[in-house]
């Protein structure tokens, strides 16, 4: 099972304002590499909105109204303590104030830093979107139980099973080449969009790399609502 995913990333390195990582999912078969398009930059030097919103081979993990006036994209690593801090301190307020009220469509994309994060990212894709967000919360809130430089699949499963995931389903997902290749695409695409660490946010195309407070999110979102 350990050979089902070969990642060549260093374990999470901490930088001020976020977690850094330029590693990627390593593909075992070059012929299976998903196709990628070049990212075009706009006048501001940021990716064009249509490139930022380009759909990949995997369904987007989304919350909120599809036609919301504001789209917030978060690139995250499940091993990143700064991502954990955002989701514990800011996300509940952000969800109540903006997502649940139809003002924001929220998309979370995988940018795993470290081999453990790569394996956990695969597991979060086992099942429905509702389970995905439940497992994201479980992995972030219980980082001490499973995060280590050496991959501990049993520890990862012990967290994932709290969502109702069965062992047979876990084992199957860990060997799912389509899923692994799709996540590889998501991270590589993130790098093309200028993501170098987590958390990185794009708020209607505006890029911010730091764990935002609810006050900072309000300042960035509200001008798009008037």
Q: What can you tell me about this protein's structure?
A:
- With 226 residues, this protein is α+β, with helices and mostly antiparallel strands.
- It has a single domain (42-212), classed as Glutaredoxin, CATH 3.40.30.
- The protein contains ten helices and ten strands.
- It has helices at residues 49-52, 81-89, 91-99, 115-124, 129-141, 143-146, 153-160, 167-174, 177-192, 214-221; strands spanning 6-7, 13-15, 18-20, 25-26, 61-63, 70-76, 104-110, 197-198, 200-203, 206-208.
- It has a five-stranded mixed beta sheet, sandwiched between helices. A three-stranded antiparallel beta sheet has the order 2-3-8, covered by helices on one side.
- Strand 9 (200-203) and strand 10 form a beta hairpin.
- The longest helix is centred in the last third of the chain and has 16 residues, at 177-192.
- The model is unreliable at 1-16 and 23-35 (pLDDT under 50).
Using brief descriptors, characterize the structure shown.
alpha+beta; globular; five-stranded mixed beta sheet
State the CATH architecture.
3-Layer(aba) Sandwich
Helix content: 25-40%
| SSE-based structural type | alpha+beta
Mean pLDDT: 85
Shape verdict: globular
């Amino acid at each position: 099972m350990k050979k089902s995913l070969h990642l060549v990333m260093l374990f999470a390195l901490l930088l001020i304002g976020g977690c850094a990582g330029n590693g990627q999912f390593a593909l075992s078969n070059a012929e299976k590499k998903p196709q990628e398009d070049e990212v075009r930059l706009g006048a501001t030097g940021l990716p064009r909105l249509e490139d930022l919103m380009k759909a990949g081979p995997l369904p987007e993990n989304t919350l909120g109204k599809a036609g919301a006036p504001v789209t917030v994209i978060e690139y995250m690593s499940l091993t990143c303590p700064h991502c954990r801090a955002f989701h514990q301190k800011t996300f509940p307020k952000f969800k109540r104030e903006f997502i649940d009220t139809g003002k924001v469509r929220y998309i979370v994309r995988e940018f795993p830093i470290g081999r453990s994060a790569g394996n956990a990212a695969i597991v979060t894709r086992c099942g429905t979107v509702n389970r995905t967000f439940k497992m994201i919360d479980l992995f972030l809130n219980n980082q001490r139980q499973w995060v280590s430089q050496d991959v501990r699949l049993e520890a990862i499963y012990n967290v994932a099973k709290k969502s109702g995931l069965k062992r047979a389903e876990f084992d199957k997902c860990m060997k799912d080449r389509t899923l692994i290749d799709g996540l590889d695409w998501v991270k590589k695409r993130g790098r093309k969009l200028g993501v170098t660490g987590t958390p990185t946010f794009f708020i209607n195309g505006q890029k911010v790399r730091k764990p935002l407070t609810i006050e900072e999110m309000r300042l960035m979102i509200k001008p798009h609502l008037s």
